[in-house]
Amino acid sequence: MCVLVRFTGQAAMDTWGFFLPALARPTAKSRPKHKPKPVKKIARITKAPAAAAVKPRQAAKRLEGAARKQDAGGKAFRLATVCSGMECPAMALEALGANFASAACCEANVACQNIIQQNFKTDALFEDVCDVNLKGKFPDHDVLVAGPPCQPFSKAGAGRGMDDDRSGPFVSTLELIQAKAPKAYLLENVLGLRGGKHKNFFRLIIKSLKLMEAKGKKYKVFFRTLNTIDFQVPQSRPRVFIVGLREDVVTSGFVWPVPSKTPAANLAQFLDPKTLAENHKRRPKASQTTACKNVSKAIAVIKAAGLDPAKDEHIADVDSTNVQIRRNACPCLTASRMRCGGHWVVSRGRRLKLSEAMRLQGIKPERIAFKGVVSRAQIGGMVGNGMSVNVLQAVLARMSHAAPKAFNGQIFRDKWSATLN
Q1: Interval 183-208: pLDDT, tens
Q2: Handedness of CA 326, 330, 334, 338 (dihedral sign)
Q3: Where are the beta strands (DSSP E) in 75-164?
Q4: Which residues, at least 6 apart from 203, have a Cβ–Cβ distance to it below 8 Å?
Q5: At residue 349, does pLDDT exceed 60?
Q6: Each residue's pLDDT tens digit, 378-400
Q7: Does the CA dihedral 336-195-227-211 come out positive or negative?
Q8: Rg (the chain; Cα; Å)
Q9: Which secondary-structure segment (H or E) carries 171?
Q10: What pLDDT, in 10s, does the model give residues 332-344?
């Protein structure tokens, strides 16, 4: 039974309190006697740093042997999600065959709450992660997965970072981790969090998480940029993932999932069958002037490349000034685009269908019942905001190899990436 918990208390005011230990200067007693080594610059976003002091191939072979010995099937562990959206973490764990129970979800959007209540079982549903009373009410859990609002760090938004009012849930999520001390956590956000003008804040986040003590426990912290298209789903969606494993449950080195060496699956497999009425000559409504111009521009570009817009599958983002075209793949799905109909499928002469967008997020459309619960625009926004289920599967599987105790002894096989299949 799901219990919706509402709070009316005052939201936390000091959003910087969590970072004070990382910002504090060392005292005379804590200052090291030796000269500290200079801090190395973070590598470019496209070159993710090594996650652990172990060679990935060697570790993957060792962990693959362990996976054969122990599969999912242990006692159910307790999952909590924050900024839950349409519960992509739960769908990822279902696909992995995990034995788990939902301890709590925390989601402010009413439409998302309706989807959760209609499609998932959870012990409690909270509304506001920023509420000062939440830490005392939120139940204990083993694994926490969170995707705080990305607008403060997104290129598509204002990019105001911590000056954005919507950054509160991010900091409150970190404070919740510190208060509840889950055995493992996984955070996801846009690429902008890690680079550009936000890179110093990202360093502060990582440093704070490494220094953090939660109920006397510390965490091993790892981060990397992963793209949905590298895990057999043809959507270009780079996202930053932060993994935290409590030191007392870690049994082996954490190894990030390795992108598949084979190309992403054919885009046509993710689209509904083509009808006789669909063709590349069709255009958006005349009132959508920017989209009409960009569709014509996209077709001209495709033809100039020596390709056939009627046969070669392309999806284009035609609703901005600069049209984005992807061959045999989809540009990044966003909430704003999906609320308004979605990207343009060139060979079909139409917008992306909701079922197709779900598949491009690794979601099985039949898993979510939404008719009569929320509108088409609302569910479209959830899909555009969601975490890619296929990437979550890959990362959660690797977390289970490094810290089986966090999942009550369950170890999952990763069917998406290049190793541990």
Answers
A1: 999 999 988 888 777 788 888 889 99
A2: positive
A3: 77-82, 100-106, 124-126, 143-146
A4: 42
A5: yes
A6: 999 999 999 999 999 999 999 99
A7: negative
A8: 22
A9: helix 168-180
A10: 999 999 998 999 9
